[in-house]
Amino acid sequence: MDQSLLQAQIYVAMIAEEGSFSRAARKLRTSQSSLSRRIAELEKTLEVKLFERSTRKLELTAVGKIVLPEIQLALRHSQRAWELARYWGRIRNGPFRIGCSSSSSLSLP
Known about the structure:
This protein has a single domain, classed as Orthogonal Bundle (Arc Repressor Mutant, subunit A). Helix content is about 65%, strand content about 5%. The protein has helices spanning about 5-20, 20-30, 30-45, 60-95, and strands at about 50-55, 60. Strands 1-2 form a two-stranded antiparallel sheet. Strand 1 (about 50-55) and strand 2 (about 60) form a beta hairpin. Helix 2 (about 20-30) crosses helix 3. The longest helix is centred in the C-terminal third of the chain and has 32 residues, at about 60-95. The mean pLDDT is about 90.
């Protein structure tokens, strides 16, 4: 996946979650102007508006409401993929630890 596409998905999801470009920018540790510019570029590329902006509120457009669940799902899948990679690395690189409890009632012949 193109890194800029992943970043755009994160930006859209965070803006929708926060309901504000400024709050999303703070959480993403970027400037509001940079975030606004990136979303404007994305909307221009897609030829659709994802957010309706006014001085009083921000809300998703009809298209934004359709794509947001897909973006959220894609981000969850991406996160799960990295978790699996880390898990595999721990299994492969060991060490393995096996424990035994003295309180177990297992008897061996």
